[in-house]
Design a protein that fits this description.
By secondary structure, the chain is an all-alpha fold. The chain is 27% helix and 1% strand. About 10% of the residues have low confidence.
């Protein structure tokens, strides 16, 4: 009896244990299934947040990574409304070092100190990037902790250094009111202070009369004044790389079979001031003429994104072997005739004011710098005449364009010649016919 009772109890206990094990296994299986389902939903949710559907930009879309090696004034000035003096200090500590002796003057001649950057960019400065954080490459030549050499600051454009940044593209247009300076430069005002090392010079923007035929002496090795015209524009704008009396008229050696094909010639361009030196002759702390040299924003304006087409083909410049940075910069900004040469033909004998209207020129608005095509007619009908028989080259090319729309005007233009003739060119001839 005892043995049978023990056996029954063991069987009962075993049955209960089996039932409990089965229940626990079922419960565990359901729990794991629910957990897997939740994990799958969370994974899908994370994937959806990271990778939004194509064509849909939601608030959770991942922001593009910022390239801190490309400094943007627009971001700092437009987005964050930072004033210029929050980074740039006038004058910088190195102003006596970049120019020596009497040539030195208080200037913004170096990049901002690290302190002005660390206020906002501490994470980028201490990023674990090799050989050094990318943000350092904006100012430093060799991005290594052992070399602290910086690039030549852009305001020192007149200086030469092995540390010049070759791929620098300025974000600014210089606001220079030609009309205001024409009145000042053309006056006979003496220096405002006897002790000052600067003052106004006697210059005129007008052609000289017969009673006064002498010109002022040249202001530089590349300056030139047309006979009978007082120096005015050449104070700032000089003929770059003039041919002068040399027999070598081309910037680079042309092929022997060049014929009438285009090849860039010397004396094509005029220089523009590329540093603060010319401006601070008058706008300095001694004279107190506004705007002061510390007011960066008075002259430097963020350039408009609406740029005009230029008559420049970089592939052509490469073919010609032109590598001079000044030539490439000036050529790349020429919005009128790409082949016009300031030193060519009778151009040196023509007053600058015959073509350029300084009273309407706004250097921030490129449209105001366009030279009207009618100025090519002049009183003598140099390039525009009433009829083709009178010898006008514009007449000749327009007649060919009418006959053959595929005709390419090559006398004056390099890239524009393939396009439709502008209405201004047609009207210039019509006006001569009426007169």
């Amino acid at each position: 009896m005892f043995t049978e009772d023990c056996a029954r109890k063991r069987r009962a206990i075993l049955s209960v244990a089996l039932l409990l094990m089965g229940f626990l296994m079922t419960l565990t299986s359901r729990f794991l299934s629910v957990a897997a389902s939740v994990a799958s939903e969370e994974q899908q949710s994370r994937t959806h947040r990271r990778r939004p559907r194509k064509g849909i930009e939601g608030p959770t879309a991942q922001k593009p990574r910022i390239d801190y090696s490309k400094f943007s004034h627009g971001t700092h000035v437009v987005n964050y409304k930072l004033p210029c003096n929050s980074c740039h200090k006038f004058p910088t500590r190195n102003w006596k070092d970049v120019r020596k002796g009497d040539a030195a003057f208080p200037d913004v001649a170096d990049f901002p100190d690290h302190a002005s950057c660390l206020n906002c960019h501490r994470p980028q400065f201490f990023a674990r990037e090799r050989p050094a954080p990318a943000i350092c490459s904006n100012c430093h030549v060799n991005v290594t902790p052992r070399d602290t050499a910086r690039f030549l600051f852009p305001s020192l454009g007149g200086a030469t250094s092995s540390n010049q940044k070759q791929d620098l593209v300025t974000e600014f247009a210089v606001n220079f009111p030609h009309d205001k300076h024409a009145d000042v430069v053309g006056s006979n005002a003496p220096a405002l202070r006897p002790e000052s090392r600067t003052g106004f010079v006697t210059i005129s923007w007008q052609q000289k009369g017969a009673a006064n035929e002498s010109s002022e002496p040249s202001r530089g090795p590349q300056a030139s004044s047309p006979p009978g015209v007082v120096e005015s524009c050449p104070v700032c704008h000089q003929t770059y790389q003039p041919q002068g009396k040399s027999d070598d008229e081309y910037v680079t050696r042309p092929p022997k079979n060049l014929g009438d094909a285009f090849w860039l010639k010397k004396g094509t361009f005029k220089t523009i001031p590329n540093s603060h030196a010319a401006c601070f002759m008058c706008h300095n702390t001694d004279l107190g003429i506004v705007p002061p040299p510390s007011d960066c924003n008075a002259c430097h304006k963020l350039a408009s994104q609406d740029s005009l087409k230029t008559d420049f083909d970089p592939r052509l410049a490469e073919t010609l072997g032109v590598t001079d940075n000044t030539v490439l910069t000036l050529w790349n900004h020429r919005i009128s005739s790409g082949s016009f040469r300031h030193e060519g033909g009778e151009h040196p004998n023509v007053s600058c004011l015959n073509c350029h209207n300084v009273t309407t020129m706004n250097t921030v608005n490129m449209k105001t710098l366009l030279v009207p095509v009618r100025s090519c007619g002049d009183a003598e009908g140099c390039h525009i005449t009433a009829t083709t028989d009178d010898g006008g080259i514009l007449n000749y090319e327009l007649d060919h364009k009418k006959t053959n729309p595929a005709f390419v005007c090559t006398k004056c233009h390099l890239t524009f010649g393939k396009e439709t003739v502008p209405e201004t060119h047609v009207r210039a001839i019509q006006m001569l016919k009426k007169s």
